[in-house]
Structure formats: C-alpha cells, structure tokens
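Lab meeting notes turned into a lecture example. A postdoc, R.K., suggested we walk through two folding results consecutively so the class can see how the record format repeats. The first protein's sequence and structure tokens come next.
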Amino acid sequence: MTVGANGRAKDLAELLKGLDVQVDGDLQGVTITAITADSRKAGPGVLFVAISGLRVDGHQFVAQAEAKGCAAVLVEQGLTEFVQGSSPVVRVMVADTRLALGEVAAAFYDHPVRRLQMIAITGTNGKTTTSYLLEEVLVAAGARPGVIGTVNYRFAGREIAAPFTTPEPVQLQKLLWEMAEEQVSHVVMEVSSHALAQKRLQGVFFDVALFTNLSRDHLDFHGDMESYFKAKQLLFQAHLKKEAVAVILQDGAKDDCEVTGEGYWGRRLARNLADTHSWRAAKGKIVTCGLGADNDIFPVSHSGGLGGIEAEITLPGGSMQLKTQMVGGYNLKNILGCLGVGTVLGLDVDKMASGLAQFRGVPGRLERVSRVDGASPTVFVDYAHTPDALENVLSTLRALTPARLIVIFGCGGDRDRGKRPLMGEVAGRLADVVLVTSDNPRSEAPEEILTEIEAGLQGVARMRGEALLSHRRLRGYDIIVSRREAIRVGVQGAAAGDVVLVSGKGHECYQLDRAGKKFFDDRVEARNSLAVIYH
C-alpha cells in the first residue's frame, strides 16, 4: 500500500462505510492517500470531491481531475451531466458531496474528535475573546488546550495562520488529528455561521457548545436574521455529542419576546432546545449565563473602569470573586460565558479565577496601543465591525468618561451593505468625533462605501478632521478615504484625556482593495502616530 505525503493511506471502501453511495467502477484495492476539493491538487492516490460552490461548481473539473490520474471522484447524483463517458477512475455518487466530504475526511483521520474534549463557541460577537479566556482557564486548570479561531490555530506551542475562522473539512480533520497526536486535551473552536451553513462541520461533534449572542452581520450571505439564527442553531441540533451541554448567554427581561430585544436570540435558542424532546429528557443539558439573576451564572455585583473589572459571580454550587484587567460590560458577558463552559467541564473555581486574573487580553480586541501616563491620549484597536459590536465598545469607552471619544472606522466591501448606515448612526450617537475611512473595500469603490455610512450620520455636522479636533468642544465627523491618514489625523489630533478607538480590523495585518492584498496594521499605524506625540 502506497502511503501519501502526510503519512496516511486508507482503503476507499473503508472511508465510504456508513454512506449511501452508488459506485461506478471497482472499489477493490483502491487506496486513498489524500482528499481534496481542488482539482489542481488531484493526482495519483487522491480522492477528488466535487463541491458546488457559491461561484464555481467543482463538477466542471471532474474530467480534469480524472485526467490527472486521481484514484477516485466523489460527485452528486443530480449533477452527473458533468460525468459523462467511461473512465478508469472510480466514480462514487452521493446525495450531497458537502456532507460526504466531512464524513470521509473524519474517517481518513480516524475520527479525532473521539480522542478530544471538544468545545464550540458560536455567536456574532465575543467568540475570539471567549476562546482566549477559555484557553487561559484551561491552562490554569492543568489542561493542554488547542484553539481553532479567527486570529490563528494554536496548540502545543505552535501557531498557524487562520485563512478561515472555521477551516474546510479536510484541513479541520487534519488539524484535529495533529492536536490529538500532540496530546491536546481540550479543543476550543470558534464556529462560524458560514461553516455551519456550508456543512464544513460534518463529522465533528462537541461536548460543550456556547452561544454568545446574535446581531446583524453576514446578511449578504444569509439574507435575513432568521436564516442567520437557524444557521447558528444547527450547531446545537446536529453537532453535539450524546451527553453534550449547551451554554447560552442571555440578557434582557425574562419575558422579552421582541426580535429587537437585547436578549431575544439567546432566550429563543434556550426555549427551542428546552422544547425539544431529547433536550427535555436530560436535566442539566442547558446552562444559562447573563447579567440577570434568573440565569444559572450571573454577577451579584460588579464594577469596572480603565483598570479592569471586579465582580462577585454566582455559579451553580458556589461563587467567585473575580478581578481582571479586561475592560467593559460586554467583556463581563464574555467572562460569564467562559465560566459557564468551565463549570460544565468541572474546572476548579479557584483555578478559573486565577486564570482570569492573569489574562492580559486578546490581539485586536480592545487592545491598548498607547502608554498609561496621563500625558497622551488613550488609543485602543478593536475588531468591532457590526453595529452591535461597535455600540458595545463605544458604550464601554463612553462609560470611562473620556474628555472626548474619537472613533475611526469603516465597513468592508462586498459585504452586507445594510449595516453601513446603522454603523454610521451608532458612531454619530456615541462618539464626539467620527472619522469615517476605508476598511477592506475589496472590489467596491471606497468612496461609495463611505457615502452609505455617511447616510447614518444624520444631524451630525461635517467639517475637516484637523479643524474638528483642534476645537475641543465641537462634535462632528469627517470622511478620510485613506485609513493611514485617518488614523494619523485622529491620533495626532487627540489630547491627554481623550480616548481614540480604531475599529473594524483589529488583529488583521492587511488591507484588501481592488489592487489586491497589502500589509496594513492598525496597531502599527497608531503607534507611528503616537510616536510623533511622544517625541
């Protein structure tokens, strides 16, 4: 049996066990050494899986994959018009190649989730911060965690760049197998709505799943909030192990049933699960967290400022005295979600408290890039790129009573256009000075994106940024297409006592426009502008 470059070789018939398939050809003796959905990577020993994508249908490349000598192709039964004539290559037909790809990839890597404690985090905001928090408390408890998320994939001292929040099935299963081989005990995984809708998690099952929140985002892909919610709900309906527990962050009034209500989506998910027979039958399958005392985990009291958060938190069977350097009410909610998962995993309360006390923050999530000296403005970089996230972070910073609150932000191109005026409205309502600038315009003209954001700044005066910032009592906005120039104007025009938020890109170290991808890091740009002030 020939072994592939990754050291693996599997009998095709074994990989297909449990799947409803039709086979054209002889499976006997067909060995698979790699799996791909990219016809360019097809070749001897490779199973090519034809996926119908948003822009390209992989079935159009079946002949190309076969010509390159792949061992077998996996196609959908309803798309056989692309698979005509005889071929020495084994053709396997299934109802849904996306589902089959996940199952085959899991089998190829010996179902690594069976060797791991799997933790999923889904929601619009807070996934990345909560993944870092969980990593910290797991380490404090003596575990060996691995993390799969937006910033990177990391385990056993390794860091791998993250092209997707949730990897494609083959990469995901390979990553999980590598983690299991490195004796990782727990995997903390950010689960995106795209991944759930595109069936990338087929063959992956979790012991604990956390729902953080839901607010407007990705409607260019999902169409509406209802479809977005149903994609998130799939995690709890189709990807949990038999004894799994759902942890749900929920806020707002207990009887809140309006879609516009703060706690609607979390409470709706909890109700939906509680109404399902399989969830009703098992006590303790749902743990709720939130600021309200009707939750299983909630703060009895809490306070905070630029120095961090202090709180007394009630947990099932006990309480915790929390002290952390994290800032803001929404980060308190992230902590509550982390504690919910930790409680389900049976982590020691004191060790969780110790881990949270040691936590130093997340790259690009309300990351301070200025000195703490009182002689210069305080500058934060954050990833907030939805109306809800921007409102959360601006409200948090407003509560710190800065002399002026200055925000620099934009919206990504080729994405949900409806959120642009909404983000403009949030910025104009909560900040003193708004500098609207480019984010990742992609294929769109930056000026057109900025005009759509400007529509939300009704009733706010526009004037040149430098003039606006030089008069400390003025409120208003300016549009500066160049993100580098906007950051320079905002940071260098700020004074001691001011707080500057550079929002939208966070940890990203690139900018995408019609010319392609180029290096750009908000933190670097902010520090360069601050250096002028310091010197």
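The second example is placed directly after the first for contrast:
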Amino acid sequence: MKASALFVKALENEGVEYIFGIPGEENLDFLDSMRESNIKLILTRHEQGAGFMAATYGRLTGKVGVCLATLGPGATNFVTSAAYAQLGGMPMMMITGQKPIKKSKQGRFQIIDIVNLMKPVTKYAKQVVNGNNIPSMVREAFKIATAERPGAVHIELPEDIAAEECEDNIYAVHPVRYPKADNTSILDAVKMIENAKMPLLLVGAGANRTRIGDALKNFVNESGIPFFSTQMGKGVIGDGHELCLGTAALSANDFIHCAIDRADLIINVGHDVIEKPPFFMENEEGATKVIHLNFFPSEVDDTYFPQLDVVGDIASNVDSLSAALTNQDTWEFDYFKRVIKEVRVHTSKYFDDTRFPILPQRAVNTIRQQLAPEDILTLDNGVYKIWFARNYDCAQPNTMLLDNALATMGAGLPSAMAAKMVHPDRKVVAVCGDGGFMMNSQEMETAVRLKLNLTVIILNDNAYGMIKWKQSGMGFETFGLDLGNPDFVKYAEAYGAHGHRPASCEEFEKTLAECVNGTGVHLIDLAVDYSLNHAILNDLLDTKECIL
C-alpha cells in the first residue's frame, strides 16, 4: 500500500479519533488516504489552535492527541503547542510535511530543519526516510508520548516518501504496566509519616490521572491527613473535602502557606519542578522534610530537594502507604483545620460584591454556581488564573483546565473546544483575558462550524493585566501595557456566534445561565475590575499574620 495509507492505518491501530490541523501541499497524499478512514479531520484556522486542541484531547483522555501541518511556517506554528504539551505532561503527536528528500524540485523553498527544531520541545522527533518504517515509528512515538511523564512527539513525512509503495506491517498495541516501589521505600515513607507531628499531603499535576484520585481519596479518608493541591492538581480530591486546605496559587505568602510553613513533613504526590513551586524548601536543620512520590525520581532544584523518593506507579504506591500506615496519636491537625476555615473565609470575601465592572472573585463565584460538578472550565493565561486557582472549587479531576507549566496565552478557547468534543454531554466554559483571547480568536469560526455548544467569557480590562499587576508589585509606573479591542459582540456575531455584553453583576448571572443552558457558541464580553489585585495579592498577603 501507499506509505501515506499505511501511516493512516497505523494511526487507526492506535485508536485515533481526530486529527486537528491545516493540511498543505506536502500533506496531500496523507489527506487523500484519510478520505477512506474513520478518523475525522478537524480543520482549524491556525496550527497553534490545532496543537492546543490535540494536547487537551490528550490531557482529558490519556490517549495521544494528533495534529497535522505542512512544512515550514505550518510546522513552526506548532512549536508553542509542542512546548505546551511537553511541559504540561499531555500526550500529543505532531505530523508535518516536507518537500521531497530524494530529489529537489524547488531548491530550498520553505525548507528548514523542523526535526531538529522540535527536539528541544518534544520527547521524540524523527523524519520518515523509508515508508516501511512507518508502523514501527508510529508505535514507538505513541508509546513514548504516553509514557510517564507524557509529552509531545513529532514525525515528519516528506511528500515523496508519502507516495511510495510499501508493505503492510502494523504492530499490535500492548499496555505498559508500571512497577511498584520496593518495600523498603514504602516502609521508609511510612516511618517518616508516622514520626511527623504535622504531616501534609500535596496533590500535584502528575496525580491528575483516573486511578490515582481514588487511591488518594482513600488515603486521606483513612489517615485523616489534611491536603492541598498545586494549580494543575486541583480536583483530584474534591476541593470541598473537609480536609482540603485549598490550592497553592502562589509560591509563598498566601493564607494556605500558614499551614505549609507549619508542617514538618509534606507528602508530595505527582509534583515535579515543571509546575510553578507551591512552596519553597529550606536547606537547613529542622526544615520541613519532603517525600517525593511519583512515576520518576525527583530532580534536585534550588526550590525542591526531597529527602525520600518513592518511585513507581503512583496509585499502587499510595495504596501501599494506606495499608501500612498506622494513624498516630501524636499527629496535630487542629491548626490545619483552623487554617482551612480561615482560607475559606478569605477566598469567599468578595463573592457577593455587586460593583461593576465585576471583581474577578465575583466572576469566579458566578461561574461556579452555574456549572455542575462534572462540567468543565478552561482558562487562558492571565492574572485571573490566580483568582480561579484560589477561589474556584473543583469537585472532580480535570474539570478546571489551566496551564501552570508553560503558562501560554491563547490556549483557553482551543482547549474548551477539545473538551466539548471529548465530553459533549457536559457544559464547557472558556475564560480568557482580552489579550489571550485575541491570540487564537479565529478559532471561533471553527467552533461555530463544528456546531459546538460553548460559552466563552472574555474578562476585558483593555490591557495585559497580569504584567500590569506585576509592574505595580515591583513599584514601577504603569507603562506600555494598555491596548484597544474590537467590539467583541459584533466580532462574535461576524462568525455566526452569539455576542453578549452585560452591564451589571446581576445581568451577567442571567446572561451566563442563558448561555450555558442554550445552544451554539456564545461570547460574553465582561468588563473586569482588577483594582484590588495589588491590595490583596501583594499588600494583604505580604503583611498578614498567620493564625497562632
């Protein structure tokens, strides 16, 4: 069969449902082979949007999301998406085209070394030079993409190779089982936990897998040890659990850090230094100790150097800890429980504030009230991400998708589109800043064309608000960060979507209810007031006195 058809057959063998992307001239053999396939081509308006959709598909399903682009500029537009998947631990494959490699037709036109360009931001990047190698390359790439920690892979298919005749030789897919940690590591961890006076459990991004959540809930319920999460670990154990301290949305000085600073042991499950630190370790006598429990060993970093590594299948190792651990009378959790109450008082303080433009805290609460526990919220990147991380209660894993690794702008809308495709029975809301939304706003057309039921909220402050807040926090004068925007209501309507611009908090609540319960793509242009950012996130938290 033709090599391009063999490539498509290899993808079918891996269970691929969608390929997101923009084909070019060099992909035409591959595109023609897709016509007879059950794999659906999702045509996007920019390769970056296609990559974000593929990465989010991987994050939500655990399977490899696949995206397609041509050579040159099409392939370079994948670089940010590759970094997004690689740092965020999302399994994704990029397929790009290339000019013929056996005989040049057009000199060096559009040709750059995409394979070497991709190597720093992927786990695997190779060019196909023989069509007969396609089945083994696809199987290897998928295996690497899903292995812990998951990430991005890349295969370049030149157009002359795609047209070659080759042999049908598909490789069977076999699941990979991860071993448990050795018994000595488990017993060492149990000893550290039992000898601690104030242990805490930390849930990181790597724990955001299906089986791991059940094991962690059982551990918390049986041991009674309080827990907190990183931003990408939210929802693994529901935020509403009575022992939940909340989310470490900042690296230090938040109310939750009163508890973290008092703990003498942190059981760190699924965290690695890719994600912004939820706390800073101190390298001195008597400092808080850390147990690293993950699929892979810890990497020593200035902020993170655990005293014990428990390496292997996380769920199995957590179950082993639960079985071996004996609850201790010497554990002291009263202080942590007081912090839990204090955190909830502070994070809910402005939930009912009626000023408009709306405070981000009020926007968080309004959105939370309109969505069921299983519904999905996706965030772009901006200062509002901190407010959602601190104030939005997640009841289930992967119901608030944010990026605390690459922290790129432009991913909120494409992520929401992929989430709706994976979970068509759930309500999906994307929250974007005006800056981030405009980076991939053209995907509104894709969402409308796909007939998705989707709500997009733009928190509009006519500025790059995150950097403006940082500028203020560093004592600089406001400069260079204000911008102008189109009429977002007319902009949405131009794509065939529904545009809304509420003028009060009450009108926003009513509009949001109509949008999430309606059909079609809705865009809400919501004026936001960030004037309290500095007063709360800098002054208040920096000068607060922790509970005694």
